[in-house]
Design goal:
Blueprint lengths: L2 H11 L14 E5 L2 E4 L4 E3 L3 H4 L8 H12 L14 H12 L13 H16 L4 E4 L8 H6 L15 E4 L19 H13 L6 E4 L2 E2 L5 E2 L2 H13 L3 E4 L3
Parallel strand pairs: 4-5, 4-6, 6-9
Antiparallel strand pairs: 1-2, 2-3, 7-8
Helix pairs in contact: 7-8
């Protein structure tokens, strides 16, 4: 199928928000490891892992082998958690063994947006507060609450509620909003979260949500001590620290 036929079908049957990259879009037909190929056989380096979702590379031989084995054995491909299956708890155990501290519990979702919906819901239920602090330049997903969390005008819609969310300054050392230099400041960006809580909320907050390295906003990497300071601030107001790590 050529590009014009694919574009015609997309325009006919997909929402117009599904916009491809480039004026002349790429059609990718094959992938292996860190490489992908278009329909003309041109080779490209996939530097973002299939939009950060391919953590072990495309078509990893171990993944392919396991999939073939399961299909050959007629293994069940999907079942709800309402029934027992060894795969979900085995994966949870492996993740828990890698997690720091006493983190032992997992909740599996279909996407980052769904994960953040669940994280905010859990924080609000646990604390009894609705207020959440996010950062300017942040990106947290494309469903209702994550869209509200996003600190980008391009991800806002005129009919979209903000869902009790306030936005603090980002730890943007390269273009510091406080005109400070990295390594010689007093982490005024972290203090801004305290100011936002004290001026835009009741003082009772459910959580702060932060990307350790902000991607869509320009690959903003905060000093390590920033996260420690924000953790102490949010805890002092009874809230939880949510790390949106992709």
């Amino acid at each position: 199928m050529d590009n014009s036929e694919i574009l015609e079908k997309r325009n006919t049957h997909l929402f117009p928000t599904k916009v491809p990259y480039y004026q002349t879009p790429l059609q990718l037909v094959r992938a292996k490891g860190s490489l992908v190929w278009d329909e003309n056989g041109n080779e490209y380096l996939d530097a973002i892992g299939g939009i950060v979702s391919i953590s072990v590379g495309h078509n990893h031989p171990k993944v392919i082998s396991k999939m073939k084995d399961m299909i050959a054995e007629d293994a069940i491909q999907h079942t709800t958690y309402l029934y027992l299956s060894k795969y979900m708890p085995e994966l949870a155990e492996k993740i828990a063994n890698e997690a720091p501290g006493d983190l032992q519990k997992c909740y599996f979702t279909n996407s980052g947006s769904e994960a953040n919906e669940m994280a905010i819901m859990a924080a609000r239920n646990y604390t009894g507060s609705q207020n959440v602090i996010s950062l300017r330049h942040s990106y947290h997903g494309g469903t209702n609450v994550p869209l509200s969390l996003c600190g980008h005008g391009t991800w806002k819609f005129k009919s979209q509620p903000q869902s009790s969310i306030s936005h603090a300054q980002a730890p943007y050392c390269y273009r510091c909003p406080f005109n400070k230099e990295r390594g010689s400041c007093k982490l005024e960006c972290a203090d801004d979260i305290k100011d936002v809580i004290e001026t835009t909320t009741s003082g009772q907050v459910a959580a702060v949500i932060i990307e350790p390295i902000m991607g869509v906003g320009g690959f903003i990497d905060a000093p390590t001590e920033y996260h420690s300071k924000v953790y102490e601030i949010i805890k002092s107001f009874g809230g939880l620290y949510i790390s949106d790590e992709v």
